[in-house]
Design goal:
The protein has about 120 residues and is α/β, with parallel strands linked by helices. The protein contains 4 helices and 5 strands. This is Conserved protein.
Length: about 120
């Protein structure tokens, strides 16, 4: 499951994975962000907030994740990985080659610092 929380005031989308990610999780996240983009045109940032990375349920979920990235990365200014998982350190190095957003890692307990970074403070 992927909790998708949109903070409209700050134009920040928080994604909180719980358990193996499913295709439908990314479809729902796409619906949420697409509605906002139609209205406002840009998202300040995405926070991926998880203690540890749960992985994907199957290849369809992985493919859906890649499609979400491909379809939305140009409308997102910053991506913050807020996690204690080693995957966060690897993910920023890999994804920086495929997305236009600025990417930064934060410890799991530093969600507020990630918000401040996205907002430019």
């Amino acid at each position: 499951m992927l909790n998708t929380i949109l903070n409209k005031e700050n134009a920040i989308l928080m994604l909180q994975p719980h358990g193996a990610l499913k295709k439908e999780d990314f479809e729902h996240a796409a619906e949420v962000i697409d509605m906002y983009l139609k209205e406002k045109g840009k998202v300040n940032g995405i926070i991926i907030y998880t203690k540890s990375f749960p992985g994907w349920e199957d290849f369809a979920a992985f493919s859906s994740h890649l499609k979400f990235i491909k379809d939305h990365h140009k409308e997102i200014n910053k991506i913050a990985f807020v996690t204690d998982s080693v995957i966060g350190n690897i993910a920023d190095k890999i994804t920086s080659h495929f997305v236009s957003a600025e990417i930064k890692n934060f410890d799991f307990n530093d969600k507020d610092k990630a918000m401040d970074w996205i907002m430019g403070d």
